[in-house]
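S., here's the first fold you wanted:
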Amino acid sequence: MKKILVILVLSLIPMFLSAQAQVETKRYILSDFTEKPLKVVHTGNQMFDIYMKEALTEVWHLSPYEFCDSLEFERCKISDEFYFLVVSDSRRHRELEPGIKSLLILKGKDSAKEDLTNMYKVVSLPLCPADDILGKECNLIPAFLDILQNEVETIMKRPINPGIGVGGKGKAAGTKSKSEIFVCKEDLGFDMNKSLEAVYEQEGIHFVDADEMIDIFERREGGELICFAIAPGVPTIGSVSYTMIIDTESHRLIYKKSHKINNNSPKGISQKELRSFIGRKW
């Protein structure tokens, strides 16, 4: 019996050492994040880039940053001396074509000279429909940037378990108190009638148009959450819809959930999701 135990222990040692090396490597990847420049890659859309510049000036504090064009990005992406903030099309779940754009923080890597996906993906966040980069989400960029910063800080500080590495999902901390939720009614995935709306109103769930939601977001009062969806303008097979809730005061991502879009689950915020918000302490 002892001989079997010894053999078992010896067989596990290489696995343990391999896992430890993996953990240390992933910790190392982000160890210099606050020191290395973050190159913010221009999208080519002048108006969107202005929104991004203003938001960075307002909220970015985690590292030095500078702007670059796509040509400089191509030259620099093979160097691990830089991190990059990139807006990129995202294809999910065998989509025929990308349905959304994501906001990503990447770290340069020598193998990126052939394939962008070989870069280290630090964190990513759905940003907007692929065909509507100047939608309501432009006004939410300060919150998106804070969410990315919070996730990077969490990754840098938390113990990283084997198998959960850079870009792994972290659970955002909630406010743990009852808050008023303002749902963008244009993002509902079902038809809302007046009687049902009144029921939700009694539970602190209010329905506003996109402009009202942005006004609520920008006033940054405590106890207010905004809820909206990010989905393709024209879904295809495999398209995904995201529902997100953000605390307007702290810019914390309180809730993020996705579902595949099909006949039974149209894009947007579902009634099942709304029911799950009733009485919840965030």
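And the second, which I think is the more interesting of the pair:
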Amino acid sequence: MNPLNPKKLLLTKWTAVTPVKKQKHFLVSRVIQPELPTDPIELVEIESVFSKATQIIAWRELQDDKVWRQGWV
């Protein structure tokens, strides 16, 4: 997988390898900025396309091919 840049994740599409409660397709709805601008970005908010439920995850989790696939597959 190509290295991800957290600043460019906003509105990217992701597919969970193992769906839970029919939630398979997600969209990065927000990149959470750190309190200090000099600190690195650590978290993003993802939103389920099916239920509109949101959750906050570490953006680095999206690099795990066993959990996430980029795009809607």
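Why I say that: The chain has a mean pLDDT of 93. The longest strand covers residues 23-32.

Talk tomorrow,
H.
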